[in-house]
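TL;DR need structure tokens for one chain.
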Amino acid sequence: MNKKWILAIFVLIVAGVSAVRHLRPSESGDPWVSSPGPRSQTSKPRPTTNAAAPVPAHYEVPPSSLPPTLAPEKFPGKTREAYQAAMAIPQTLAQLPCYCYCDRGMGHKSLHSCFEDDHAAHCDVCVNEALMAYRLQKEEHLSAKQIRERIIAAFAEQ
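>> reply
TL;DR here they are.
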């Protein structure tokens, strides 16, 4: 083999290891993946667990400021409605787990994180959770904690 092929194979191996490293959940204990460190109940996302399955990361109390969500106008239909909901109730979405488990592979801190970029535009779970949360808050006047309980009940078993 000539040197160019060996170099190309080496680069592909390094890229593959890097991709796997960033896609694995940080809770896996894998030495390649850095641990997120300790989490508090008030200012950082907190993964909670129940007997059946772990609840994805979310804030018990949202931070005082959150990054902006993307403009709803960038998206069509139901996705646009979900980004509008995220823009309308950001503090509530920050207190909700996302059951596509993007906290594991992408480091998301809550459902709100999904709407800070175009992740939610490609994920029915994110869209459906946000629309459900919006409806529960605006029509049924539920608190973020009550909405979280409903989200967990609806999405944890899927």
